[in-house]
Write a structure and sequence with these properties.
Length: 275
């Protein structure tokens, strides 16, 4: 087995059993952690988990019925506010957005409330039905990104905490290029697995296939034919930083998230373009 990021075969066994019930390997060259040693076996395990329990634990009903005022939604909104600020300089007049992995629909709803023309892709049929009930003009489609047949081109592609779930991320990234205009931007966020706590959670608490470091993610993005316009580590702001930010009138530009280093970052964000 070779690393999908750098093509090296210098892989060590990191852990015998993960959340997916498969071994985890570590690439010594680029730092990528990989769950499983066979695409077929990985696909089988992911399918089992999603059918049995994954979506049951993440149903949208509570979030949507509360008007996205529940604790989970409030946390996601803080992150979305920061993500929006991070990308805003590239939006210009861009309005057509494809959200890959709508989840409970929070970001889908918030984008529409900001005046964006939103289309979401979500594999959970229950979530899709609920999301479409609250959208006024947007639409959420019940599809897996690997099977997406959408031909429309968009100004913005939005993919948050999805890439780590994919069995073949390079193929999916190449496929997404067909839905981008010449001047489109593509926002991606994944867990930062240079952070030891995030790596442990990614391997043992979530059905993630890949556990990215900055170097390994850069390799995959470049292999897929994208240009990286911007890439940073982020962590939640502390209470003291929140007070300081309020007093100093938005001292931290992406508050309530703060740019940090690889050791302390919770997430990795990047903005991509075709050229």
């Amino acid at each position: 087995m070779n690393c999908i990021s750098c093509d090296s075969n210098n892989l060590d066994l990191k852990q015998k059993i993960s959340n997916l019930g498969l071994p985890v390997f570590h690439c010594k060259k680029c730092g990528l952690y990989i769950t499983g040693d066979s695409k077929d076996r990985i696909s089988e395990k992911i399918s089992e988990i999603y059918k049995k329990s994954y979506w049951d634990e993440r149903t949208s009903e509570k979030s949507i019925n509360s008007g996205f005022s529940d604790i989970d939604s409030e946390g996601k909104k803080r992150n979305w506010i920061s993500q929006f600020a991070y990308c805003k300089q590239f939006f210009d007049e861009k309005k057509d957005i494809l959200e890959i992995g709508s989840g409970a629909g929070q970001a889908t709803f918030w984008f529409e409330s900001k005046g964006f023309n939103i289309i979401g892709i979500e594999p959970d049929a229950r979530n899709v039905k609920l999301i479409n009930k609250i959208l006024k003009n947007g639409n959420c489609m019940n599809e897996k990104i690997e099977d997406m047949k959408l031909e429309q081109k968009f100004d913005i592609i939005w993919m948050v905490h999805v890439l780590e779930h994919l069995v073949d991320p390079v193929s999916v990234l190449i496929r997404i290029k067909t839905n981008m205009k010449k001047n489109s931007i593509f926002f991606i966020e994944v867990p930062n697995c240079e952070n030891k706590k995030m790596l442990d959670a990614s391997i043992n608490e979530n059905p993630h296939v890949f556990h990215f470091t900055k170097k390994s993610l850069e390799n995959i993005i470049k292999k897929s034919g994208f240009k990286i316009k911007k890439m940073d580590y982020f962590r939640p702001a502390t209470k003291k930083e929140g007070i300081f930010n309020k007093i100093s009138k938005k001292y931290f530009p992406y508050y309530p998230r703060i740019i940090t280093n690889g050791e302390n970052g919770r997430d990795l964000r990047m903005i991509l373009s075709l050229n």
